[in-house]
């Protein structure tokens, strides 16, 4: 797994994490699309997604996303892009950060690469201090834990499907 932080010309920062798993993208996709609501989501994760309305997941679905910590941070996000076998993207509607999050997947000849990116700007010096000193590191650690749990779940699911196919 890798993570990095970059800065674009517009003062946009990017948090990037990825994992590679030797599992077909067809197994990965349904788990990615259910991000935050999936059964594999770590129960002890500081990052939580709560859907704001019932119905089928699609563009326009809204969530309250939160990051636990000293003061508890939360914001609303909306699915703005959903492409099966490719990924999902949420736009941040309010809160400390402005920007979007995306989880994408790409099939390679021997497995699937899964990328998480948070593209953000922080308006105001107080918000910058608050994010950088209290929440950025917690968010990075949370995403790493989520990606690790996802990877373990995908491998287990794939092995179970392989075993079932062998028994059939």
Characteristics:
168 residues; alpha+beta; Alpha-D-Glucose-1,6-Bisphosphate, Chain A, domain 4; 2 helices; elongated
In short:
By secondary structure, the chain is α+β, with helices and mostly antiparallel strands. The chain has helices at 25-33, 125-167, and strands at 2-7, 13-21, 47-51, 62-67, 73-83, 87-92, 98-108, 111-121. It has one domain (2-167): START domain (Alpha-D-Glucose-1,6-Bisphosphate, Chain A, domain 4), CATH 3.30.530.20.
Structure overview:
The protein is an alpha+beta fold. The protein has one domain: 2-Layer Sandwich (Alpha-D-Glucose-1,6-Bisphosphate, Chain A, domain 4). Helices cover 31% and strands 39% of the residues. The chain is built from 2 helices and 8 strands. The protein has an 8-stranded antiparallel beta sheet, with helices on one face. The N and C termini lie far apart (35 Å). The model has no long low-confidence stretch (mean pLDDT 90).
SSE topology:
Layout: E1 2-7, E2 13-21, H1 25-33, E3 47-51, E4 62-67, E5 73-83, E6 87-92, E7 98-108, E8 111-121, H2 125-167
Antiparallel strand pairs: 1-2, 2-8, 3-4, 4-5, 5-6, 6-7, 7-8
